[in-house]
Amino acid sequence: MSAHPRLSLNQATIKYAPLAEALDVAREAGYTSFGAWREPVAEVGLDRAVELVKASGLRVSSLCRAGFFTAQPGAARQTAIDDNRRAIDETAALAAAGAPGSAPVLVLVAGGLPAGDHDVVGARARAAEAIAELAPAARAAGITLAIEPMHPIFAADRGVVSTLGQALDIAESVAPEVAVVVDTYHVWWDPDLAAQIARAGASGRIASYQVCDWMTPLSADSLLSRGYMGDGHIDFGAVTRLVADAGYDGDIEVEIFRQEIWDAPYAEVAARVAAAFDETVAPFLS
Amino acid sequence: MSAHPRLSLNQATIKYAPLAEALDVAREAGYTSFGAWREPVAEVGLDRAVELVKASGLRVSSLCRAGFFTAQPGAARQTAIDDNRRAIDETAALAAAGAPGSAPVLVLVAGGLPAGDHDVVGARARAAEAIAELAPAARAAGITLAIEPMHPIFAADRGVVSTLGQALDIAESVAPEVAVVVDTYHVWWDPDLAAQIARAGASGRIASYQVCDWMTPLSADSLLSRGYMGDGHIDFGAVTRLVADAGYDGDIEVEIFRQEIWDAPYAEVAARVAAAFDETVAPFLS
């Protein structure tokens, strides 16, 4: 079997597979790239994860995810900053362990409103400050901090950075090495999408392109309303053309949170992802 | 009992009350204004609805809702346009029947992507075309078409107009009498909210201000994740100040879709709404 040379299987799509098995699934399905998550890495320990990645021969396309730094100044915020520093080191180690072409990219999710806090403007400012604080460590480690704007459905409880334009405002205000993630699920609805993807490309700030579909009706757990590309409402041709025209030529991760997919055999999922990618995304890559 | 002089009870907050009972509930709870919906009006017929509104002594703050005109050219689109023309007439009749200070405002929701259609840009363009087509009839009837941008959670299946900025782009491109609705539930997350509310105010385009809270976790039916102001995540002080500073001095509707609230006694809901309004919104009105 082979998969598209730019296709990366994100660990979250086969969420229940331990790291070793997830890497095997990807390789056996013909993938050459893998998007890692911190939790399965932590389960085996970073040293063992590095060994597994080396042995897999796969590229590492990103590490998901750190961030969650909207707490008010104090212990909770410091805990978050410390955790993000560890994530930077993990990203560097895993990218170095991956095959050539691995991307030293750490995906950052801002986090939601602290309990009882209604000030989304303030929470966004704190997220920007945290990213600024982390930028020197990222620079020193040679990794890219990639801010992932999240669909406004998550603004209250998961990610207060809601648009690509806002993520770029933060990135540009902080440092050259801070970039953004374009995830179709989060950004497809944005009326300003074309302009903001072009803007991100012009400053070399597209660090990751992730794809999955927006399904309706939403799942009862709305976090899990993602689906295979082509099963929902997103125009992957349109978004992929924008990303390609903006100069992004890195790996493209398929990251799907959906209970039925998590419950399916991993190999079947990997094959289905590769087929959906060939049909919906690959034809629009320049 | 009395309620704040600018507070309007939107029919949808007591969804199961027939029109006559809903008007009674509002008046008995001390409201002076009522936000009407088309379905309960249709249940009794427009003539009878006009009588009921006249007898109530209440202002009518808006009629919800028409729109849903994203279909491709053809029979479905024509049906939608015809229905919107009827809604314009209904709005004029109800506003004329309401007490002085009634607002001849018809709330428009764009509608979602037609089945199988992935082109959100095209659907938005068709919505704008439909509004342009309806503008002369609205002008002739002396009513304001008010575009309600919907939270991006609804972009696929209910409303492709996703931001206040986008609604204003459409309004400005169409005609002076086309305006917008600022609904906290739909717009609270928008990083550009302050600028867009100011922009709407500067051209006199805030036709309606609606309030309710964004609750998490989302309800299994995410449409019903609204709540009483103060129970969720929205900063009503911040948004209300923006709307007041933008010059809006009309009625403010409380419109809550939530199963527990629909299932509660109407009078209890009306009282609770008035109390929440006094606490979260009223202090920030200029």
From TrEMBL, chains A, B:
Chain ranges of the Xylose isomerase-like TIM barrel domain: 23-268
Keyword line: Carbohydrate metabolism, Isomerase
Pfam families: AP_endonuc_2
Domain of life: Bacteria
Key word Isomerase present: yes
UniProt GO MF annotations: isomerase activity
InterPro entries: IolE/XylAMocC-like, Xyl_isomerase-like_sf, Xyl_isomerase-like_TIM-brl
Name of the protein: Sugar phosphate isomerase/epimerase
Organism: Gryllotalpicola protaetiae
